[in-house]
Write a structure and sequence with these properties.
With 260 residues, the protein is of the alpha/beta class. The protein has one domain: Rossmann fold (3-Layer(aba) Sandwich). It contains 7 helices and 7 strands, in the order βαβαβαβαβαβααβ. It has a 7-stranded parallel beta sheet with strand order 3-2-1-4-5-6-7, sandwiched between helices. α1 packs across α7. The protein is globular, with a radius of gyration of 18 Å. The mean pLDDT is 97. It binds nicotinamide-adenine-dinucleotide. The site of nicotinamide-adenine-dinucleotide (NAD) has 28 residues, from α1 and α4. Nicotinamide-adenine-dinucleotide (NAD) binds next to α1 and α4.
């Protein structure tokens, strides 16, 4: 159950990147609880395996895999293992992402490259490999890209991150058009501010952010997982190319008090 909805992904195989913690872990757990066989992949292979082992202890189907989504060889190795291990691939969630901070005046070229490689090239490599498999196997699949409100709303110190997520939103649209004839949908989910850990941001930052969120609460990893399951499910069978913003109203407008 999630938000009152009982999702059913029995017989489906879902691959989630960045599943070792945070939002990716919640997405992996959501699919496993809904009956899918889950491949939990992460740069930190031990953490991915720990998440999968925990799901297996609950009687669910999951396996952990190491992967660097920015490395084409590692991505191809992952696909070669997941498909025989779990007997197919129906859903890919490109969740792995990094968000360091640096103003452009001080930013190292290597940091720019690392963010773009993980957040934008990674989803390209993963989607290409997954879609080739889905097309070859005639799978009616779904690819879900985890973007961010940073795709639309600029954030100081995050030029690389904002550019990577804006790029991912457009990549989602193009890939959706190219894969539609193959009956593969491609959808984005853009989280707002999500409390993945108690210490995920300094207190004053959180207080200031809360004043900008009409729903007056931070999001939870489960909020994102349920949106991902909705867009991956048959309930969203005519949705493709779009990115769903899951942000408590953060981007709806400017939270200025009314002038009297
Ligand atoms: N937390 C938020 O408030 C928030 C808001 C908007 C968008 N997002 C997006 O959601 C996604 C998950 O964020 P999170 O807060 O859970 O992050 P997190 O840092 O808690 O977890 C990210 C996971 O991705 C893994 N990872 C990093 N680089 C990788 C790579 N090259 N290959 C494979 N795995 C890699 C990390 O090891 C980690 O386990 C990211 O794409 C992020 O940009 C998060």
């Amino acid at each position: 159950m999630d938000g009152g909805v009982r999702w059913d992904f029995a017989g489906k195989v879902a691959l989630v990147t960045g599943a070792g913690r945070g939002i990716g872990q919640a997405i992996a757990e959501g699919f496993a609880r809904a009956g899918a066989a889950v491949a939990a992949a992460d740069l930190d292979g031990a953490r991915a395996e720990a998440v999968a082992a925990d799901l297996r202890r609950q009687g669910l189907r999951a396996r952990g895999y190491p992967v660097d989504v920015a490395d084409r060889g590692a991505v191809l190795d992952l696909m070669e293992r997941v498909v025989p291990d779990l007997q197919g691939l129906d859903i890919l969630v490109n969740n792995a992402g990094i968000y360091p901070n640096a103003p452009v005046l001080d930013m190292e070229e290597a940091e720019w490259d690392r963010v773009l490689a993980t957040n934008l090239k990674g989803p390209f490599l993963m989607s290409q490999a997954a879609a080739r498999l889905m097309v070859a196997r005639r799978t009616e699949g779904a690819i879900v890209n985890i973007a961010s409100t940073a795709a639309r709303s600029a954030r100081i110190g995050a030029a690389h991150y904002c550019a990577s997520k804006a790029g991912l939103v457009m990549f989602t649209r193009v890939l959706a058009m190219e894969l539609a004839p193959h009956r593969i949908r491609v959808v984005g989910v853009a989280p707002g501010l999500i409390r993945t850990r108690e210490d995920f941001a300094p207190g004053p930052y959180v207080e200031a952010a809360l004043r900008m969120i009409p729903m007056q609460r931070l999001g939870t990893p489960a909020d994102i997982a349920s949106a991902v399951m909705f867009v991956a499910s048959g309930a969203a069978g005519y949705v493709t190319g779009e990115t769903v913003f899951v942000e408590g109203g953060l981007l709806s407008g400017r939270p200025l008090p009314r002038n009297t």
